[in-house]
Design a protein that fits this description.
Radius of gyration of chain B: 18 Å
Number of helices of chain A: 14
Number of strands of chain A: 16
Largest interface: A-B, 38 and 34 residues
Shape of chain B: globular
CATH class of one domain in chain B: Alpha Beta
Distance between the termini of chain B: 27 Å
CATH architecture of the largest domain in chain A: 2-Layer Sandwich
Largest sheet of chain A: 5 strands, mixed
Structural class of chain A: alpha/beta
Oligomer: heterodimer
CATH class of the largest domain in chain A: Alpha Beta
Shape of chain A: globular
Strand content of chain A: 15-25%
Structural class of chain B: alpha/beta
CATH topology of one domain in chain B: Rossmann fold
Order of helices and strands of chain A: HEHHEEEEEHEEEEHEHEEEHHHHHEHHEH
Number of domains of chain A: 3
Radius of gyration of chain A: 22 Å
CATH superfamily of the largest domain in chain A: ATPase, nucleotide binding domain
CATH topology of the largest domain in chain A: Nucleotidyltransferase, domain 5
Number of helices of chain B: 8
Helix content of chain A: 40-55%
Number of strands of chain B: 12
Chain lengths: 385, 248
């Protein structure tokens, strides 16, 4: 069996256990020593040695729990220390960049953001501003960044963070991972936005604990991230996830990708603007305000149909136990979400076989991609901190 | 064009012989951040106070959702869903975040406050605005940083289902990093569909969050345009001279 430490050298085993323990604390928060031993399948003396080591390096702190359970001496609560490892998370969108410093345990320690207009959206400008923003945030915090994670709405090579195409940003062939690593002086990893949002929802949001889930987001583009068997489905070189370019309407409008009637053209942000009679350049907030009005569901009848049509296929292909709707989809009227869920339950044979696929609205909202980028940055850190 | 929530038409206001606002037209749109800029004494704060029910306009019309309304006092403004956040924020230092967010509007009957429900509502509101920088809603406000305090003051407006939020120099007393945090929140406020008015002296801030800029010059509205249509230099001209020069 893989994953056990049998036959490995003791220092490797210790490192493996240490990483597992840190990951547990980072993702699920403070925990008592006794519970850690149970969850990780390690004996209490091993846990004590690991926790003592981490506490001596200032990575965790121990405290007597406030709420006691059962009799006897209470097991000490182990708390990850946010400042022990701080990463930079960057969410690059078509109209805006958001950044955050995130500490060990997932606490957001500071944030920044700016609109992208005109030249501000060029890769060089974005890199420059990210570096400046990071300097301001780290100075305030008095801590440096050990790693960076970046979410980009486009096709990204995971190995080195090379952005092949981010059409809605107007980027092609940008060695973003390399440039940010150099500019920040810390390793920068880059991922597709929907894939990172799926990661965040899986670790900290609506898909927590799910083995198979699909995250679907609508921004200018529509993207999907897939969790399969408990880990991210990547495809060759990490290119999987362009669910928005699944053709749903062969008679539909031409898409920039070279195809016609892509799902994105029927359920993306622009499709919502058309359905709501908003001008093409109205701000995102105006779309949200319009979706809140009582008249919205009636105006979204056709949109709802296309959303359901695509989702039926997505559920049939990936057989997820749940689908998380993110970003602009979180603002959809509840009745529209219910209608789509009913259509999927009725029309997807995989959903019927599974006894129903759950359709949920994201709990992380607009921060899913940003928090996913933070988790991407944490991946290498937990081994080395 | 997105829906106009709040609109001022030909509004004038004088204090004794001094005419502070001259026939001012002003519109607040749902889901947009409108930056209100102008030199000291241009009438920015007076304009906001007229919308907040602190001053009454001498002449002119105020419309909310297209209907003419009167805003004789702050209560009337609150009833319409207009909330004001001032730079010297009105938070009580000795109370925690939940207590501050519910100050004056506590839930429960008679002597019994429903603490659990208030705590839950406060937590949900902060989550809806993606505020993750505040660890516990039971933290006393005195222990918060300036940025966090301003965050609580702004979040209060969302909790009370306000539709228009007027921010009078919300970052004036804050450092650079804290300012950025608050501006990021201002952006998210508009992203929730609220109409946001931001008074600011800092043009870098204005350009980083606003969708539209409205410039007052000596009590007159000299421009109200999408921010994408103006340059930094043109906004400076509007503030200092009331018009844009013939710059390329």
């Amino acid at each position: 069996m893989t994953g056990t430490t049998a036959g490995t050298r003791p220092d490797e085993a210790r490192r493996h256990n240490r990483t597992a323990l840190l990951r547990r604390l980072h993702v699920d928060g403070p925990c008592t020593r006794a519970a850690l031993a149970g969850e990780l399948g390690l004996n209490r003396s091993t846990i004590k040695a690991l926790v003592d080591g981490l506490a001596a390096s200032g990575i965790v702190q121990e405290r007597v729990p406030m709420v006691r359970t059962g009799a006897g001496r209470p097991s000490l609560l182990v708390l990850p220390q946010p400042l022990a490892a701080v990463v930079l998370a960057v969410d690059i969108r078509v109209d805006r960049v958001s950044t955050a410093l995130v500490g060990l345990g997932g606490q957001v320690l500071g944030r920044d953001g700016w609109n992208l207009r005109g030249r501000a959206g060029e890769p060089t400008e974005v890199v420059t501003r990210v570096v400046e923003s990071t300097r301001v945030l780290t100075e305030e915090l008095g801590s440096r960044v050990v790693s960076a994670g970046v979410s980009v709405p486009g096709v990204v090579r995971r190995l080195d963070g090379y952005v092949h195409e981010a059409p809605n940003l107007g980027w092609t062939d940008v060695p973003l991972g390399h440039r940010l690593t150099t500019a920040l002086g810390a390793p920068a990893r880059v991922g597709n936005d929907a894939e990172l949002a799926a990661l965040a929802e899986h670790l900290r949001g609506a898909a927590r604990g799910a083995r198979d889930a699909v995250y679907l987001s609508a921004d200018i583009g529509v993207g999907g991230g897939v969790i399969s068997g408990g880990s991210a489905l990547r495809g060759t070189a990490g290119y999987v996830g362009e669910l928005g370019h699944m053709v749903v309407n062969p008679a539909g409008a031409a898409c920039y990708c070279g195809s016609r009637g892509c799902w994105e053209t029927e359920v993306g942000e622009q499709a919502l603007r058309r359905a709501l009679d908003l001008p093409a350049h109205s701000p995102r907030g105006a779309v949200v305000a319009e979706l809140r009005l009582p008249a919205a569901p009636a105006r979204l009848a056709e949109f709802t149909g296309w959303l359901a049509a695509g989702l039926v296929t997505v559920v049939n292909v990936f057989a997820p136990e749940l689908v998380v709707l993110g970003d602009l989809f979180t603002a959809l009227p509840r009745s529209v979400v219910a209608e789509v869920a009913a259509a999927v339950a009725e029309r997807s044979l995989v959903s019927r076989a599974l006894g129903g696929t759950d359709l949920r609205v994201s709990t992380l909202g607009a921060d899913a991609k940003l928090l996913g980028a933070a988790e991407l940055a944490f991946e290498p850190v937990l081994d080395t901190v | 064009m997105s829906a106009v929530l709040l609109e001022l038409e030909k509004a004038s206001k004088s204090f004794g012989p001094v005419r502070v606002l001259h026939d001012v037209d002003f519109a607040v749109r749902a889901g947009e951040v409108t930056a209100l800029v102008g030199d000291n004494g241009a009438g920015k704060s007076t304009l906001v106070k007229c919308l907040a029910g602190i001053h009454a306009v001498d002449s002119g019309t105020i419309r909310f959702d297209g209907e003419p309304v009167a805003i004789p006092d702050p209560r009337a403004a609150a009833r319409l869903g207009i909330e004001v956040v001032y730079q010297d924020l009105a938070l009580a230092d000795n109370l925690d975040i939940v207590q501050n967010m519910f100050l004056g509007r506590e839930r429960g009957s008679g002597w019994l406050l429903d603490e659990a429900a208030m705590e839950e509502a406060a937590r949900e509101t902060l989550a809806s605005l993606s505020v993750r920088t505040v660890r516990s809603v039971r933290t006393p406000v005195a222990q918060l940083s300036g940025g966090q305090r301003q965050t609580v003051a702004i979040a209060k407006s969302v909790l009370w289902r306000s539709r228009v939020v007027l921010l009078d120099e919300p970052t004036a007393a804050l450092g650079v990093a804290q300012t950025r945090q608050v501006l990021d929140l201002v952006r998210r406020l508009a992203g929730q569909g609220l109409g946001v008015v931001l008074i600011s002296h800092n043009l870098a801030d204005v350009f980083s969050v606003a969708d539209r800029v409205a410039a007052l010059y000596l009590g007159r509205m000299v421009a109200q345009v999408p921010i994408a249509d103006v340059t930094h230099a043109q906004v400076v001209d509007l503030i200092t001279a009331g018009r844009t020069g013939e710059r390329p």
